Amino acid sequence: MKLGIFDSGLGGVLMARAIRRHLPRYDLVYLGDTLHMPYGGRSADALYHYTERAMDFLLGTQDCKLVIVACNSASAAALRRLQRDYLPARYPDRRILGVIVPTLEEALDRRHRRIGLLATQRIAACGIYAEELTKLDPAIALFAQAAPLLVPLIEHGGGRWIAEPLESYLAPLMAQRIDSLILGCTHYPYLKPQIAAIVGPEVDILSQDEIVPGKLADYLHRHPEIETALSCNGALRFFATDVTEHYTAHAGALFGDPALSMEQAVAA
Prior knowledge:
Layout: E1 2-7, H1 11-22, E2 28-32, H2 44-61, E3 64-69, H3 72-90, E4 95-97, H4 100-109, E5 114-119, H5 121-126, H6 128-136, E6 141-146, H7 150-155, H8 163-175, E7 180-184, H9 192-199, E8 204-207, H10 208-222, H11 224-227, E9 236-240, H12 245-255, E10 262-264
Helix pairs in contact: 1-10, 2-3, 4-6, 8-9
């Protein structure tokens, strides 16, 4: 059985690369829902539908034992319902994990008190990070900023136009005297150098591609019934719901393998 990673687009490739480097022996399957990205502006019902279909593919067709929903928007809209209803009914011996709670746990471990959140429109508006943070420590302040232009620019090679909107999005967070910044979208690690140059060394950047692999390794250590079921041949397969030359080339560049092969997955 395999380890699955799901995301809406290119951002999840960065997560797959990070997990692959941290846990290289496990067989890994990646699925990007490129047909429906970006997820940030989609309705909750649509996101649940897309994510459920992705789980059908990864848990069913690809026989994954554990799936990481790397997309923050999908985690917010679908994760609880998938864990509560979908898994018990369809795959009671499998697991689906998100990225939001592990990220906040890392912020608390680093003793941050004024946390900035750079996120998609949906994540900034739905309040999922504030809700989960309140459960962990209600005394910590969280300041969210939507950045709707960043994902389309990243996905379509618009790096030359990112600097101005990025500075505009970060300015309100810096005005709140944040001590840390969560990159609340799997696409944003692509912008880490630019973000670090703007916020300066005083702000600790919490990037999910740096956090999740270690959290996943810890989870597998604490759940040997999951870890021992995973196959360990070092195999790797990439799927997308809409395979294009542009996406395949960019995915290969981000993963560090120009010869990366992208396979077609059926989307509902």
